[in-house]
Design a protein that fits this description.
The chain is globular and about 65 Å long. The relative contact order is 0.10. A hairpin with a 2-residue loop joins strand 1 and strand 2. It has six helices and two strands. The protein starts with 7 loop residues before the first helix and ends with a helix. Helix 3 packs across helix 4. A two-stranded antiparallel sheet has the order 1-2. Helices cover 69% and strands 11% of the residues. By secondary structure, the protein is mainly alpha-helical. The longest helix is centred in the C-terminal third of the chain and has 25 residues.
């Protein structure tokens, strides 16, 4: 069977639209803003980091990250402590409250998305989606 050449511009356009819709739906299910949730998740997975390291990892300006961290700190979800290897610098880490809020938020969001995947997609479609997640992860690393 000869496969027709993929119209990558069309795929890219469709993907952008669909991902935007999915992000909006997840945001509606989310307690935090997208940037706040991303920072909390990164701190949970990778441990304490400086604001500049978080900004670089999230590909945002340090000033924007500083505001996100300040908002999270104001809500008691993160705290800043001196960096043991450089006393002039501070590391941002999750508080107990931040960890609890993140885990509760994840259970809620994952519950909705997992239920939608389980109920609306066949086993074959679920396998395709699983493969697509890895492809999307690779695209984010470009």
């Amino acid at each position: 069977m000869v496969r027709k050449k993929t119209d990558t511009a069309r795929v890219a356009s469709d993907l952008r639209v669909v991902l935007g819709q999915l992000v909006r739906r997840l945001r509606a299910e989310h307690r935090f803003s997208l940037s706040q949730g991303s920072v909390l998740g990164r701190l949970d997975r990778e441990g304490p980091q400086s604001v500049s390291d978080l900004a670089a990892a999230e590909r945002v300006r340090p000033q924007s990250m500083a505001q996100t961290v300040s908002d999270l700190e104001g809500d008691g979800l993160v705290e800043r402590r001196p960096d043991p290897s450089d006393k002039r610098s501070k590391l941002v880490s999750l508080t107990v409250e931040g960890d609890e809020a993140l885990q509760a938020d994840r259970r809620h969001r994952v519950g909705w998305l997992a239920a939608a995947i389980d109920e609306d997609l066949s086993a074959e479609e679920q396998a395709v989606l699983s493969d697509a997640v890895e492809l999307l992860r690779r695209l984010t690393e470009k």
